[in-house]
């Protein structure tokens, strides 16, 4: 089918960590997976984990999904990315997003106002630094480098990066953020992606972004992040998916601002999302979990028998999806490895067994 595959480790310690994580990544690399992706929120950070993986892998790309914009100045992100890229022989992939108001303000102390305007500028600054065409000058709404009237002067990255252009992915699900992604980014990482509602949910916003940026669909790698389980204890796997859905719909954000609830409305599960959020925020986590139907699991994940998952992978390929970034949700190691191998065979990315 020709769809690229990435493996998503998620958050260190919540997802796989240490030798367990390394075993999965090395297995994925042997199977022909094109990339490994690492997340951060308010625990483990992306930079440390990817740097740790850089010296223990040889071919697999090292992706950030995502580096949080409020977590570090754009220069710090550019320095880390250029360093990991050089250490790994050109395998690093930037991934950016503004997180949400709880993490931005509650953890980093950074006001959340105008998150996507800030993200757009952040990407501009990072690209300027990596391009290394001259001392950094950027005078925008959110970043002023160097500030007028201060003692600082414009500086240039003091080593030559291996690549002067490193791909930039953006984690986005909202209308305006997806439009911005289509306008300026090299790749897009949507979460809770329904392939059957792909065009209905995001098509017009992607097209508006392509038009504004003078680009086409071929300029953007669509790379949804999905949980996956093939064969084995599928009920347990579905429950793992539901646990993640419950947390995002119920606990990520406030009643006023929850991008995942809004997204669920847009692909036909609005009443479910509202009920999950209401119960979760009332302290009824058991009720919130019970309110999640198997249909929502099926719409947003790859969980099923080999034949069922193969049929869904075909739908992703037919929709023009470029890459699937997958998180194996089985607890048992043999089942995780089975899932990775069978998915590699379906996607035709390498030798699987």
Provide tags for this entry:
TIM Barrel, 353 residues, globular, 47% helix, single chain, 14 helices, eleven-stranded parallel beta sheet, alpha/beta, 13 strands
Description:
The chain is 47% helix and 14% strand. With 353 residues, it is of the alpha/beta class. The strands form two sheets. Strands 1, 2, 3, 4, 5, 8, 9, 10, 11, 12 and 13 form an eleven-stranded parallel sheet that branches. A two-stranded antiparallel ribbon has the order 6-7. Helix 2 runs parallel beside helix 3, helix 3 packs across helix 5 and helix 6 packs across helix 7.
What's the SSE blueprint?
Elements: E1 4-10, H1 18-31, E2 35-38, H2 46-54, E3 61-64, E4 67-68, H3 74-87, E5 92-97, H4 101-106, H5 115-131, E6 138-139, E7 144-145, E8 168-170, H6 175-184, E9 187-188, H7 198-213, E10 221-222, E11 225-230, H8 234-251, H9 259-266, H10 270-281, H11 285-290, H12 294-300, E12 301-304, H13 306-318, E13 323-328, H14 333-347
Parallel strand pairs: 1-2, 1-13, 2-3, 3-5, 4-5, 5-8, 8-9, 9-10, 11-12, 11-13
Antiparallel strand pairs: 6-7
Helix pairs in contact: 1-14, 2-3, 3-5, 6-7, 8-10, 9-10, 13-14
